[in-house]
UniProtKB/TrEMBL annotation:
Coiled coil: none
InterPro entries xref list: Alkaline_phosphatase_core_sf, Arylsulfatase, Sulfatase_CS, Sulfatase_N
Catalytic activity: an aryl sulfate + H2O = a phenol + sulfate + H(+)
Pfam families linked to this entry: Sulfatase
Similarity comment: family membership: Belongs to the sulfatase family.
Keywords: Glycoprotein, Hydrolase, Signal
Signal in keyword set: yes
A Gene Ontology biological process term: phenol-containing compound metabolic process
Protein name (database record): Arylsulfatase
Amino acid sequence: MRLPTTAAAAIAALAATANAFDLQQLQQPLQSILKSQENKQHQKQQPNIVFILTDDQDLQLDSLSYMPLLQKHLQREGTFYENHFVPTALCCPARVTLWTGRYAHNTNVTNVKPPYGGYPKFVEQGFNSNFLPIWLQSAGYNTYYTGKLFNSHTVENYHSPHVAGFNGSDFLLDPFTYSYLNSVYQRNHHEPTSYAGRHTTDVITEKALGLLDDGIAGVESAGRPFFVGIAPVAPHANMNPSDPPLKMTEPIPAERHKHLFKGVKVPRKPHFNPDTPSGVNWIASLPQQDEATVDQNDHFYRQRLRALQGVDELVDQVVTRLDDAGVLDNTYIIYTSDNGYHIGQHRLPPGKECGFDEDIRVPLFIRGPGIPKGRVEKAVTAHVDLAPTVLHLAGAAQRDDFDGIPVPLPNGRKQVYNREIIESHKRHEHANVEFWGIAIPEGEGNSFGPNNPAVVENNTYKGLRLHSPESGYDLYYSVWCNNAHELYDLTKDPYQLHNIYPSSSSIHRYLLGASIDQVINRLDALLLVLKSCRGHTCHAPWSVLHPKGDVETLKDALDSKFDYFYEEQVKIEYDRCEGGYIVDAEGPQVGYQYLTERDGLGWSHWE
């Protein structure tokens, strides 16, 4: 434990006057008293924040069960957000959303490389001077970061320009980002350094602890709180710079973890390699995987779990370092992943980029002052809420251009969003889902079948995840760029195997006490708002459709007096498939808003 100057002086004074005392007997209780006083002093300061972001970590495939240290330090000591969703299930768009508080359709960073994404697109859009670390520095924080920031942040362009907003940084750089045993890091404004032969998770752990020490020193010397972002690449697939583009093979664990989890297999749930095809568009045409492919993917799954053991140790070392320094009690630790992952579900090879729960539902833990221990938070939250959450924890003002709002933080502090006080029970029940571009199979030898061996081009879609246990619905609705539709009732079909979007066999079905057509009319109208929402309309979309404020949930909207309004509402329809967010390909952008209650009539276009 580091003792502040006042503590050292107190010990010296005692030593000078300890004629009749055994100083060795006093040392332990004295340090406990000083540590307690030091913690009280820190409690009066702005809290420190540590943000750990893994890459491609699943929630639905049970990876957390294989991380005992994370369970010890975060699950038992903090709150688990079990309904946390990522809007775009792809690395770079998800990370830009996370650090800006805006959906990808508002950042226009929708892919991992130019012209539609990557670090150059982030810079081009003006975010290098307008994202979370910049705002935290304005709020009095020292800011640090190590690991992967964005894709296409390379050994060639790292200084064009340098990433802004950090007092200290040590970034992983492409094309070595995903090379577990041949990584390249770039510290501050120095030239890149190769760490060939060392495991990247061990390297990033050392760097993270060093940055924590820098942050802790700033607390002790100047009273400035710290933000430290830590972004390991595990359990992402391995990619070597010398391999062909898009070749993603099994993750590589550290040598000490290679023997673990023998015989463990991908969870065999009903949607794992099903006998009957599921999904729509290209997913419905996937062939069933043969035994050799299943065995290969089980091995890939074990390698992911083994690669995560280094991250589990990282969590333990971060918590230990904070505790030893006496700042743990005044530090929030946030843990999540940029997107989820599937292996074999719906016959899919390893990968992400889909709208199924495996890809969009990810871990989120928060531990810190006032956060309940061992709590499971059921409210719907999303990555777009995390920049607002960090600013809220820091005591900084929310921004009017945020598309999200802070997650529920049951710590006795009121949550103020854009001058409105909103209690947790008022929180929205939807998660916005969107994707542009291609889908890529991962793992040695995997493909999408003989007709789609390498990539799928038409993987652009807009989706809506709606979850309300109180009202009895748990739904996923999406429209693809080829105008295929799908609707899953996860209350009855938790594995999303049965598309109940109207067809000749399902058009007379009922859902939530209404005809399925009436439910879809509401979902489509809500999705029409969300596909181009900004700011307040993203977390209060029903207010666009019903400006009088009498509709706040799907249950409210299902009132029969609105039937004709929703039947006549503008419907979502793509004009064509594109690789990025090109508005004139996206179909209608504006629909009707309900203005009167007389006979359910009277509406006009919203602006």
